Structure formats: C-alpha cells, structure tokens
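Form 7-S
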Amino acid sequence: MVSAAQNQFSGPISVFQERRLPETATPAGYSALIDAYGLDVPLPRTLCAIGAHHRMLERDGWRIMTPRHAPEASLEGHLTFALKYEGLDLALLKYLFLKTGPDPITAIVHDKPTGTYARRVWFLYEWLTGKALDLPDARTGKYASVLDPDLQWGIEGETVPRYRLRNNLPGTPVFCPLVFRTKRLEDFIAEGLAQRARDIVADVPRDVLARTAAFLLLKDSKSSYAIEGESPPQDRIQRWGRAIGEAGKQPLDEDELLRLQRIVIGDARFIKLGFRDEGGFVGEHDRETRLPLPDHISARPEDLKSLLTGMIAFDHGPAQNMDAVIAAAILAFGFVYIHPFEDGNGRLHRYLIHHVLAERGYNPPGVVFPVSAAILDQIDQYRTTLESYSQRLLPHIRWEPTEKFNVRVLNDTGDFYRFFDATPHAEFLYECVKRTIEHDLPHETDFLRRYDEFRRRIEGMIDMPERTVDLLFRFLGQNDGKLSNRARTKEFEALTEEEVERVEAIYGNLFSPETI
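Output:
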C-alpha cells in the first residue's frame, strides 16, 4: 500500500505525461493523484492545476485555477478538490483505492465523519472495490448525492443509510459510464426535439407518414452498412431494416444480442457467430509482417460476461430514468468499445441507439430517425468521437500479437470499459438526432407530398400507369427538370411537344430549387 505522505505531490510543472500545460502550474485533483500514486489509467479529458495568477485559464485540455483554489497537499485534499471541481472519474478512483488500500480512506472518514466529501469517498471506496471499511454506519450528516448533479448526469437514485447519501449513479459497479453537464447538451435538451418530431408528423396524412417511415428505415439500414464499407444485397438491407423497425419491442439481453448478430451478418460461413472467446481490435495489419496495428483494442473475452451484464442492467434500470439520447449514447458507445463480437459490432452499436429511443418513445410511433445516415454524412466527426476515448485508452493496454495475428491483452483492463467519459458521444448523438428531426423527417414528408401532387397532375392530364409516372419523374430528376432527347424518342415518344412542355412545367413548379 502507498502512504499519503505530503511529499508525494509535485510542485509547479510545465509538462504532465507528455501533455504541455498552458503555463507553469501545480497539479491538483486527479492530475496530482495520478502523479503521486503512479496510476496507470486513461487521463481525464480535462486536467486541473493551480497557477500563480488570480484568473482562470482553460486551454489545451487544462483548467488552470487560482491560488485560492489550491487544495491541501494530501490524499484528502486532492480527493476533495477532484469531487468538488472535476466530478467523478470512476476508473481513476478505483485504481487509486486499490493503491491506497483501506486505511487512508478510513482515516479520512474518522477525521471528518459528518463531512459530505468524506462520506462520498467512503461510499465510492466500498462501491468500487466491493470491500467494506471497518467503520460504523453514519449517524449524523446532511443527506447528499454521491454524484454531483450540477457536474454530471445522474438519476434520482435511492438513499443509502450507511453513508447518509443518495446513490444517484446511473449504473452499477460493472458498468457506469458518465456524462458531464455541458452547455451544448443543456441547449439540445431545451430544444424539446422529441416534441418537435411529433409536431412535424402531426399533420402528415397517414399514408404519407407510412411511406416516409419506410423510406427512412431503409435509408438507415443502408447507411449503417455503408459506414462499415459494405454494400450487401438488397434483401439483407431490407431484413436489417425490419429488425431496426422492431427496435425497443424486445427486452435487451444476451439472447437478443445474439439474435441480432445472426440477422446482421447474414452469410456466416466465414464468420464465427457468438461472443468472442479471444482478443479483438480495430485497425490494420502490417503489410509485410501481418502484425496488428490497432487503433482500438476490445475488452478481454474474460471480461465480456460482466460487462454485458452491466450494460443490460443499465438498459433495464438507469436508462429508463435519464434523458433518452444521453442514455442511448452511453449504451451504444459502451457496446462498441467493448466489441463483444467478431463481426457486426458497429451495426449493433447503432441499433442500440434505436433501441433506447424507441423503448423510451422518443421518436413518433412507427418512425425511425435515420441516425446512421446522419452519422455517414458526418463520418469524420464520428471517428473523432470514437477516438476521443480510444486514443486515451490505447496507451494503457499492454498486449502481444498472437499466432493468428490477433492481440492478447496482458493487463487487467475491464474497468476501462466499465467507466469512461461519454460526454463527446452524447453531444455527437444529439447532433445526429437533431439533424434527422430538422432535416430528414420534414424533407422526406415534404418530398412525398410534392411527388403525390406531381402524380395527381400528370394523371389528370394523361392516362398513365403509376410505374410510368414514376419513370417519367426519375427522368426529369436526372436532367434538371427536362426530358432528354433519348427519353422523348424512346420511353415517352407518344407525348406531344405541348404535353412535354406541360409535364416539364408541372415538375418545375413543384421541384425547382426555388420552390423546395
């Protein structure tokens, strides 16, 4: 065990683990604890330090605070600072507690038995390690929340009399990613996007809405395969689209995930279905040696059971009591980092977004937001979002190549997949959902209304089968609203010059850039 001697904590520095500070400052909170206790964990996205000036500075992943914010140079001082200003980093805290052992934490509680921060540290130690401290139940002290709801998203939770706290953590010790409260997320939520979607479809005729829903469903399925660089046969796209359309109707469990993998893979002759029993990674192989060049390393196979159990428990419990889009981001991106299958993980990850939104009634009945299409249109930002954690995680995974040119993880990494900062993922997903509501949904319903009017006018002018009207429409769309000479002399040679002019005028009236 490591003692809590004061001289463990460093003085002013200009570089911290290869990350430059904007100015010379003294590590505080999590940065100080990582340095003092040698914690081998992914660094928080933002670290804190105490500067020499009486002004705040936030830049380059650092928040430089003023001398008046400086904590006591002790385990208790930096833990209190972290909980007060930095929120909870559960993986970091667990690694810290495993390093300190129980005695320093017990001493903190003995010293301030009624203190809110001491009781929160006490709860977190026992919750994360599963080991009880030799302490009697708290008898005094005002009830407080384990997770500061002003800093991070939690749930209402329940009281825990032992510590006189309310456990509002949105998960369990085996799966509990967290999301910070940001202005961007607050703004998204204030927009009431779910109600806006319902308002958009409220006056849409039932048949138009049904056709809109069918188109958006197929668009999402096709886009989800395209993100993976695949162009499967139409029947596989349609089959996966039908599965997406049923999202939220079946409870999430291991059997459901296995069923969905069988649907998404289709031809499994060269794919091993089921949960992985060996390592996994996302990346390339060296062209000459065939050795792995990972961009992301998946959870160890021996950790999959507990991680999936935690994800399923999150879906059944906390996800029902959080903002739907934030809950969808936690579940879906948690799944894709764990990567429990050999193949199909990306498409199932995006399916889980639909699962949570549909389960919570976020989208209008029968309508699927084509989130995958929005992701495909912002593929670089999607990759950046995935890398926001993968790049910080990778340096802390020790691995070796296997004889099958796979990876074998050598250290215990399970907690890195249980606990991560899902804030960038929630912000990105909200942006995609907003795009589908403000663009895809109204654009498609408007298009179908215009198309129906085009067909009505053409059929009122000429007796023409529906499939021929559709062919006429496509020819006009391909040639800027004009019938090409080829179309005039072949498929539509029966049209007179006057009729062609009237057809082109109808199309222009409904679909010219000025009218759309």
